[in-house]
Amino acid sequence: MTVDEPAITLYRLQACPFCERVVHVLDELDIAYESRFVEPMHSDRNVVKRISGKRTVPAIVDDETGVTMSESANIVDYLRDTYGDGSGAAEGGAA
Ligand SMILES: N[C@@H](CCC(=O)N[C@@H](CS)C(=O)NCC(=O)O)C(=O)O
């Protein structure tokens, strides 16, 4: 039997502010996830390129919904829409 693994895999890089933004929302929504740190060298990021079609991080794969996406703003919106409580908690945004 497989031990429960988080449905979400986050491809990220150390000290990447866009990745931290996604991590912040994952933590805020109490979503379990697995981190995969990609190669710092852009040209070596074949793993993330294979899954998302781009070499940029962050990128997520959500096995629960079958969604794969990159672009931190899109990921944040997706996480809030899919796993948020519907209260529409804004991220320090305008009222
Ligand atoms: N617009 C993207 C920017 C992401 C981004 O620039 N990530 C950097 C790491 S912090 C990266 O992967 N850079 C690789 C590259 O631009 O080639 C987002 O918001 O996710």
Can you walk through the features of this model?
- This protein is an alpha+beta fold and 95 residues long.
- It has one domain (8-83): Glutaredoxin.
- It contains 3 helices and 4 strands, in the order E-H-E-H-E-E-H.
- The protein has a 4-stranded mixed beta sheet with strand order 2-1-3-4, sandwiched between helices.
- It is globular, with a radius of gyration of 14 Å.
- The model has no long low-confidence stretch (mean pLDDT 89).
- Glutathione is lined by residues 13, 16, 18, 42, 55-58, 71-73.
- It comes from Halogeometricum pallidum JCM 14848.
- This is Glutaredoxin-like protein.
- Residues 6-87 form the GST N-terminal domain.
